[in-house]
Design goal:
Helix content: 25-40%
Oligomer: single chain
Number of helices: 4
Shape: globular
Number of strands: 4
CATH class: Alpha Beta
Strand order of the largest sheet: 2-1-3-4
Structural class: alpha+beta
């Protein structure tokens, strides 16, 4: 994926500000059991990371539906890790492992995130 193809997500699309260092976005759905498991993992990862905001958007709601459509989300949960500018640095479908989310967050803001922005979270 070239730099011109890397999605950038605005605060307006999330319904609030971006995190100071990173933002983790979970696109979920109401009756999705894996989404509940992903939420627990993401809350743990974000809870120990400074300057990181967690945003959960329901794909049936107006913000989640628009963002999901724009990004071509086909399943829930879909997890995005954005840098401080809203650039999608990591994207994955399914329930991520805690270590993978922490590694993705650790790479945001470093030179390590200059590679594949759609690199794995899960």
């Amino acid at each position: 994926m070239s730099a011109s193809q890397v999605p950038v997500i605005s605060p307006a699309e999330l319904g609030g500000p971006l995190g100071e260092r990173a933002t983790v976005v979970e696109l979920s759905s109401t009756f999705c059991q894996p989404c509940r498991m992903a939420r627990v993992v993401l809350q743990r990862a974000v809870g120990t990371a400074e300057g990181v905001r967690l945003v959960e958007l329901d794909v049936a709601g107006p913000l989640g539906e628009r963002l999901g459509r724009r990004l071509g989300v086909l399943s829930t949960p879909t997890v995005l890790v954005l840098d401080a500018d809203g650039v999608v640095r990591h994207r994955a479908a399914g329930v991520p492992r805690l270590a993978q989310v922490r590694a993705a967050l650790g790479s945001v803001g470093s030179t390590a995130d200059a590679g594949d922005p759609a690199g794995p979270v899960a």
